[in-house]
Amino acid sequence: GNVLLNYCGIRTDFLDYVQKDYELRVIPTVVVTGMRKEEVDVAADAIFYKPCDLNDVLEAVRRLAPAGMTG
To answer: Three-state SS for 60?
Structure first.
């Protein structure tokens, strides 16, 4: 199954888990959602609301995790 989806679209417990884990929290997170801004309450480095421009999402990924980045 899809581990990131639940009734509201964003599996916030997964994002909470990532933020609480010492090794995972350094990994940048990008969220793309169809929810309205006022419905979203997550910790992420970038959040995009559908419809969004794929180029903007890709730019955020490039900015947050540049090529050759290692942990």
So the answer is: helix
